[in-house]
Amino acid sequence: ASGQDMAPLKQAPETSMPEEEPMAPAGPMVKNGKIVLPGDGMDDGETLQGIFYFDFDQAIVRREGHEELNKHAKVLSSDRYLRVRLEGHADERGTREYNLALGERRANAVRAYLVAQGAARTQIEVISYGEEKPANPGHSESSWAENRRVEIVYR
User: Fold this and answer.
1) Could you tell me if 136 and 147 are in contact, meaning their C-beta atoms sit under 8 angstroms apart?
2) 46-48 and 34-37 as β-strands: parallel, antiparallel, unpaired?
């Protein structure tokens, strides 16, 4: 065979490996029912606690809870696949029926706040435990104050 039959071998174009780009921060993650906001690389991120307290016989979201509730609303509105359960609680004073209704009113107040801040109503389930699941089993004002709450549980 003569050298004219053989076409010169074409070399594959050199492909350079792309330089590793820094990882973009992951989105919020659900961990043990809580939401963890991504960190900036210097820290592990922020875990939103998701417990909001109420005054005696009240279902009004306290102003001091607004900043954290705003963060929850932002997370929910940015990911429509996230779902939360709002668990309403009351202290032991009052009848079982009254406390179930009060826990539900409290959870509904938190839901209304989240929806007003951009979360979708369909992302939020409301349940009331009334006085059945106290955070503090004591029988004093400080114990009762811990039990008058709504907890946000991510699913």
Assistant:
1) yes
2) antiparallel
Q: Return the DSSP state at 18.
A: P
The model scores a pTM over 0.85: no
**Cβ-based burial of 2 (10 A; exposed 0-12, middle 13-18, buried ≥19):** exposed
Strands of the sheet with 84-89, listed across from one edge: 51-53, 149-154, 84-89, 124-130
Q: Sheet containing 46-48: give its strands across.
A: 29-31, 34-37, 46-48
E strand or H helix that includes residue 147: helix 141-147
pLDDT tens digits, residue range 40-53?
Answer: 777 778 999 899 99
